[in-house]
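Re: the 268-residue chain
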Amino acid sequence: MLSQSPIPIPNPTPNDLPKRLAQLGFRSLPEQLDDFLARAVKGRWDPRSLLEEMARMEELERTRRSLDRRLRAARIGAFKPIADFDWDWPAKIDRPLIERALTLDFIREGRNLILLGANGLGKTMIAQNLAHAAVLAGFSVLFRTASDLLADLHSDSPLQLRAKLKKYARPALLCVDEVGYLSYDTHAADLLYEVVNRRYQFRSLLLTTNKAFKDWNSVFPNATSIVSLIDRLTHHADITLIQGQSYRRRESELDAEKRRSHHSDEPL
């Protein structure tokens, strides 16, 4: 009977350990190895405590990486936190409804949320905060402008179109920003209808628009699907109207006042 020769094991140097841990799939430990070992020695950890701390570190790192991936995939963009929102500036805003939406119950219930108002009143900022909160809560999220979404859906291949429609039907929350800022052809309304219809009563859609629904014919001229689109979009939906003057105009006026004040204070 032939005896099996033992598998040769290399004799590593101490400096090889972080690299070997990384090759084994560890994410946090290789970068923090010296600190980890110092804490283990100082705390006189027993073997079980040491393994539990290793597991905890790796779980935290993998959770962080997962969150980073989902935030990148969502493409929410840079935004100001909702704590910076000036609730007193709009002439009209349903603050309780928006604060209720921030609990994300509308996503759990499969309801839609529509923010309607003129340009520069914070609709996108509110939508970005809601999308970010949803990602942090573990929901899958996609955030797209209407123009980006419709451009992506225009395809010569029916197979590609089906795949893209599935992509937009899949996430727990789909945010479509700036509907009404541009006009589109008739086919665009049909594409948006397909997205809304695939999500209808199952998954939530958050939409911002500067146009009242009665004016959507100017956004999608001659579209036969416009009535069905709005009907499905607004059924099981919370719709809030924000009225007032543009924040951006206000900020420009404040900046101009500061510059005038600064120049008037300069010595002649």
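The mean pLDDT is 88.
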